[in-house]
Amino acid sequence: MGRPRTTQLALIGIVLLFLSLFLAPRVSAAENPGALKLVVSLEQPVIAAPLPVRASLHLLNGSQTPVWVYRRARPPATGPELPEEEGGAPPTRGGTMVTVHLEPTEAAAAKQSAIPGRGRILTWTGLPHPKLVKVGPGDDFEEKVTLQLSPALREGDQPIWGRYRLSVVYHASYSNGQDLERILSLTLWQGEVTSNPVDIELQPPGAEARGSVAGTVVTPDTRTIPDALVSLSDEQEHLVNQVQTDLDGRFSFPHLPLGLYWITVRRPYITEDTTVFQHVELSAAQPEAAAQIVMLPPETYEPQKVLHKPVLFRVEDSAGRPMGNVEIEAVWSNGPIMDNVKGKTGDDGIAALNLIPGRNYVTLKRHGCPKQDERSDVAPGAEGIDGFKMVFSCAKK
Question: Which residue among 94, 159, 169, 391 is the one 20 to 30 A from 323 at the CA level?
Fold first, then answer.
C-alpha cells in the first residue's frame, strides 16, 4: 500500500524546503549566526490532549564554516541559579533552548482567543548528558524532541480545539561564548533561528482517557519536596508529560488512557543523579492511581552518576598551528569516585570531551612525542560549556 496523499505531500514539502535551504547563498557563520537553518516535522498530524507530539528538528549549517552546536535542547531556564563559590571561578551558563509558538489557523478561533495556545519542549527524565556536536559546512543533523501542547482558551477558560499552526524557535547562548571562540579559534553557534510552520490538529481527550495519576514527592522523613521534576512515560517508555511539584510536593496527570505508566522523579538543579522510578497501572476497575515517591539523598560512587559538562580542547604546536591526532586523557577524582575520559583532536586541533566540573588532570599523547601533562580546572555550573587551549611541545623522542 502507498503512503496517504497527505503524508506524501508533507514529505515532499520537507524535501523542497531542505533543498531551498541548502542551495541558498552561503555566508560565514561568524558573520551570520543565523546561517543555521531549521526544519521541523511532526510524527503525528493529530493529537488528543494531554498526549504530546513527537517531532524532529532538522538543522542544516548553510555557512562555509564549521559550527559547534549544544545538544540536547531544553526548555528556557526557570530554576534557581547555582551560587558562586567564594574565591572560585564563576559557574558557566547557557546551552540550546527551544520555545514553541502555537496559534489557531482559523481567523474566527484566533479572534476568540483570550489566552494564546502554549507549547513547551520536554526535557531529560534522568540526569542530563549534554554534548557538543560539530556540524560542518553543508552538513546537517537531527534532534528528536517531545512537545507538550495546550490549546488557546476563550473567555471562561474554555479550550479552543481544532487546527493550529506550530513553529519552534531554536536559540543558544553561553556566558563565556565569545571568550571561548577567541581563545579556541572556532565558532560556537549562538543566536536564534525560527523553523518552518507546520499544521497540527488538537483534539479534546477521548472517552477512553479516563485515567489519572497523582501523588507527592517526599524525603525519607516525609517532608515534601517542591520543584522536583516528575516525568510520566508509557509502557514503551515514550515520554507523555512532565510537571514540577508544587510547594506541597504534589503532582498530577489527568485524562490518561488506561495502561501501564512509569513515573520518574529527579531534582533538576542537583549535579548528582537523584532519579527515582516507580510504575503504576491504570485499569477499568481502578482508573486512578496515587503514588508517594520517596527521594533518598544521593549516594554516588560511579562517575556516570555525576553531571558532566561539554569541554572543548584546542591543541597547538609552538608555532600556533593546530595539531591533529593528539590523544587527550582527562582524569578527575574526589576520592571515592574516579573519572577517566579520552578523546582525540581532529585536523583542526579540536576535541570535545564531557568532563566533571573541577580539577581535571590532562595528559597529551601523540605518536613519536613524549607525553605532556597539563591541568584543566573546569568551571562549575550545571549548565554551559568550558574550553582550554594547550601548546604541545612535541620534541621527538
Answer: 94
* Collapsed DSSP state (helix, strand, coil) of residue 197: coil
Distance of CA 42 to the CA centre of its chain: 18
In angstroms, the Cα distances linking 101 to 9, 118, 293, 373 are: 23, 7, 34, 49
Angle, alpha carbons 305-306-312 (nearest 5°): 130
Is it true that 211-294 and 303-391 share their CATH fold? yes
pLDDT of the residue at 86: 54
pLDDT at position 270 is 86
Q: Return the pLDDT at 146.
A: 98
User: Residue 18: is its pLDDT beyond 50?
Assistant: no
Whether pLDDT at 141 is above 80:
yes
* Model confidence, pTM: 0.87
Q: Please name the fold of domain 5-203.
A: Immunoglobulin-like (2.60.40)
**Three-state SS sequence of 49-63:** CCCCEEEEEEEEECC
pLDDT of residue 358: 96
- Residue that has been written with the C-alpha cell 581532529 in this structure: 346
In the numeric block, the cell 582527562 is attached to: 330
β-strands 46-48, 198-203 pairing = parallel
Residue 104 has pLDDT above 80, yes or no: yes
Q: Which residues contact 223 (CB under 8 A, 6 or more apart)?
A: none
For 303-391, CATH gives: 2.60.40.1120
Q: Judge whether 198 and 42 are in contact, CB under 8 Å.
A: yes
